[in-house]
Amino acid sequence: MAKPRTWTLWKDGRVNEEESKLLRKPAADVPVPFDEEGKRDVKTLIDAFLSRDDALGLAAPQIGISKKIIIFKNKNFSEKTRAKSPGDYDVLVNPRLTQARGKEEKMTEGCLSCPDISVEVTRFEEIKIRAYDEEGRKISKRYSGFLARIVQHELDHLDGRLVIDHGGTLSFPKEKEAFFSKLFKFES
Ligand SMILES: [Zn+2]
After folding, report:
1. Sequence ranges of the domains in the chain
2. SS3 24
3. Cα–Cα distance for residue pair 33/31, rounded to 1 Å
4. How far apart are CA 154 and CA 176, in angstroms?
5. For strand 69-73 and strand 89-110, is the pairing parallel, antiparallel, or unpaired?
């Protein structure tokens, strides 16, 4: 399958106004039990995620679907391998953060929707989530460490929030400095 396009805030030194609008919008709930459209959207996101090996997680708005669905690898984070079978990833529909605790940790994150940039983001060490799985069954999950970070990153997408909104230090390649210094209005 061809690699589906990821929606981005900017590309090749230009801001993507249309794509930014959707990425910035809070996503809508999927009706439960899932209707035909909900089932299709869940499947579209799973297929999009399984077709690429450069993503730890993907949120529906990143492929242009403004719905509360996220998917992410649940192991082998350091390997550039594709998630293949349902045991390799979690799908959360209408996820709700019910508890966040532990030490807050700062770490650099990238995002397919914010190409060429990485940002220091502070996240909780441990979280609890209530959601529905890909079949529409109620689930409750606990995540910790790096996995908790990935899930918090994907949850942010459902609120229209991106890594650059955390106010952390930005890093990008020197040759992109003209664009990013204009975009973020800092002195270079
Ligand atoms: Zn992201």
Report:
1. 10-183
2. coil
3. 6
4. 26
5. antiparallel
Gap from CA of 112 to ligand 1 centroid (Å)? 6
Tokens of 45: 């996101």
Question: In the CATH scheme, what architecture does the domain 10-183 have?
Answer: Alpha-Beta Complex (3.90)
* Euclidean distance between CA atoms 90 and 109, whole angstroms: 20
Q: Which residues contact 6 (CB under 8 A, 6 or more apart)?
A: 58, 62, 63, 112, 113
Which of 154, 175, 177, 187 is flagged as catalytic? 154
- 105 counts as catalytic: no
Q: 0.90 cut: is pTM over it?
A: yes
Question: Is-contact 124 102, C-beta < 8 A?
Answer: yes
Cα-to-centroid distance, 183 and ligand 1 (Å) = 18
Q: With a cut of 90, say whether residue 50 has pLDDT above it.
A: yes
What residues are paired with 10 via a beta bridge?
Answer: 15
Sign (positive or negative) of CA dihedral 20, 22, 27, 33: negative
The Å distance, Cα 152 to ligand 1 centre, comes to 10
Q: Is the dihedral of CA 23, 27, 33, 37 positive or negative?
A: negative
Give the pLDDT band (50/70/90) at residue 134: very high
Cα 59 to ligand 1 centre (Å): 7
**At residue 75, what is the residue type?**
K
Cα distance between residue 182 and residue 73, in whole Å: 34
CA of 49 from ligand 1 middle (Å) equals 13
